[in-house]
Write the structure tokens for this entry.
Amino acid sequence: MSEKETLLLGQVLDIHANPFEAPPEAAARYERRGAVLLRDGRIAVTGAADALRAAHPRANIIDHGDGLILPGFVDAHAHYPQTAIIASWGKRLIDWLNSYTFPEEMRFGDPGYAAEIAARYLDLLLAHGTTSVASFCTIHPDSVEAFFEAAAARNMAVAAGKTCMDRNAPDGLRDDAQSAYDQSKALLERWHGVGRAIYAITPRFSPTSTPEQLQALGALWSEHPECPMQTHLSEQTDEVEWVRELYPCKKDYLDTYEANGLLGPGAMFGHAIWLTDDERARLRASGAALIHCPTSNTFIGSGLFDTARAMSEGQIVGLATDTGGGSNFSMLHTMAAAYEIGQLTGHALHPAQLLWLATEGSARSMRASDRIGTLRDGTAADLVVLDLASTPAIAQRVDGAETIWEAVFPTIMMGDDRAISAVYVAGVPQSGAPELGADSGHSREVNPLIADSLGL
Ligand code: GUN
Ligand code: ZN
């Protein structure tokens, strides 16, 4: 056998089917003593530890003990430039954008600042177990360069794009229809498909784009339908009303995108709370994704996204932090908020459903589930290992848990970055792997970015 193989040991939970369509027990396979075999940065096979050890006696073993091995979390909507203004007090959407977001995004005219925040943000994501994200950048092309450079340095699969705005934004944060098209196209051609980078065409939202700009970006998308398109839709009622005033000839908010070629498979609509039945039907028919941002929707006071309804309608749904409208970098925290909003809308989401949304659901919304967000053979070995007893409060709660669902739910509800005991990106441990540096008789790659801080 020529390839280097690594066998990760731990509890393994493989949610291989959509748990909104099949009962959790049928949708998931759980191994109390399981293993994931990694080869060339990909998952080769998952199964019972004893069987895989016997079949691969020369594999390098990393034993995570009782750690729970899952696909790395996938955050389907975030704004990395808002890292430094997360948790800003007291405003609703439009005032929040004007008071906090736009002044901060202005700072990304400085490429050095963009690089600093991109690195900080991606390190925070890894520390929270998130291995992929779809992020907005700012109006500045250099903010996109900085983000893709930082992701490439960590070998992370990310989607990102230049945030286009040509009205209702301050001086210094506006482009125009032509420059939005030209700059987006140049970035797309430079980055899409390079390494693990995915370029996402990114109009911020209809209030900050003229119809001409939306049309130009729709034209770009029709030239590159392989790219995702990310934007915002119907987050707050004031915003919906504003769109009605700005686009008097359009039948609804969705139509401002649809009429300009911005509705279709690969479209990712953040929030999508205040929809009419007709908009829901058109979203469903188009194959677009709705991205649920629960901590943001409570933090900025937007409203309650009905996950169970969207899933029962057959919508594609991803889960996201919406940093920094969202109040946390953690997808555990985001799942907890999704659970609470589920309760408020009449459905207790099952842990299998929450975990699936935070991994495969988000990956599907990015049309990337053939590569990320699952434990399927051949996909990238982007993994998180959870400590299911990471704090005394959680440990006392899970003592004596009888099923994996009982064991994992308290970590979903109460866990944070202390629950992340290891993260792998394309098979390379990022931090906290228990045997890093220990003499196991095999040399092991460690991401050089974090090797220093681990003292390796
Ligand atoms: N709508 C338009 N821009 C934004 C943003 O940056 N954050 C959120 N939450 N909503 C938006
Ligand atoms: Zn957003």
Observations:
- The two ends are 28 Å apart (CA to CA).
- Residues 79, 93, 97, 101, 204-205, 232, 235, 296, 300, 322, 325 surround guanine (ligand 1) (CB under 6 Å).
